[in-house]
Fold this protein.
Amino acid sequence: MQPQNRELFLSGIERVVAQASGHAATAAQSGLLRRRLDGLIDAFLLQSQPIAGTHATIVLADIRGFTALTESLPARTVIGLLNRYFSAMGGVIKRHGGVIDKFMGDAVMALFGAPERRPDDLLRALACAVEMQQAMVEFNRESQARGQPRLYVGIAVNTGEMMAGSFGSRQYSEYTVIGDAVNVVARMEPFSLRGQVLLSESSHAGAREHIEIAGINAVQVKGKSEPVVLYELHCVTHPRRLVVPHVEVRRSPRVPVDFPLMFRQVAGKCVLPEPLVGRVLDIGYHGLLIELPTRVEHGTELVANLAPFLHEEPAGDLYARVVRVAPRAGRFEASLQFTSVDIPAYHQVKRFVDRLLWGR
């Protein structure tokens, strides 16, 4: 259903309801009715779609460090944050004509080009990704006003061939997409840092005349024998200029330290039991430089508890993403960026750095 047809259908339903009730709905009632009908229309249109090949763009957004937030916040606060987040992201996706494929925990997956293809699917997807990051800036302003923690999102975008349709059985089915392009965007997403939008080679190639890039990086992902090139999106220039907001300073004062620390690797939302013992060489507000006996891949997520070494009371684990790895004298140095902020363990690190810098 095209947007203009959907609008005509919704307006017609509103008129029927007004005639049946004998009075026009208030603005609040009209808004509630439209939201409910919008969801019912989507469910109806997607529940019985035949499976067919299509060329589409996927936008996958995921909250950075959400596991640590859930460990440090009451369940009611977490639910409230998630509901606000999904509402904000869903509004942006709908505004750009995308289809919400699914909510997965703290992630949102949107489709542009399925079930209906349009000539500007890719550009609408990129504009959507930028505006999702812009929406998070306003989201965090509201969170601070409420005394709630900020959330930061990493976004990956990929374009390619996939199969789309209703998959499942008579007992349960859902509209979704499958294929290598879907697998690739899922592998890309963990490499996106706070506030970033990463593009695949196919998305970059299809939109290169209408975008500006901030950086390029080649990474090794599971299931691919060759490195995957990722492009950090700076802005979309057509049909209007949209800039990815610089949400925070990723660099901070670094202070040298030297203490052992046990890490555990996070894989597929699970914390692996095998310990990885390394040494912390320096520490800053947003990350660590560590030395490890074995190599870890770029994009790997690690978790550790720094409280004993910071001379603080236990406050939970801290999660970080590997952003650089280099061999050094038979061992490996890895730069880590914290994925979770506004949690007790993160504030412990900041206090520790301040004490070393300023004697506070």
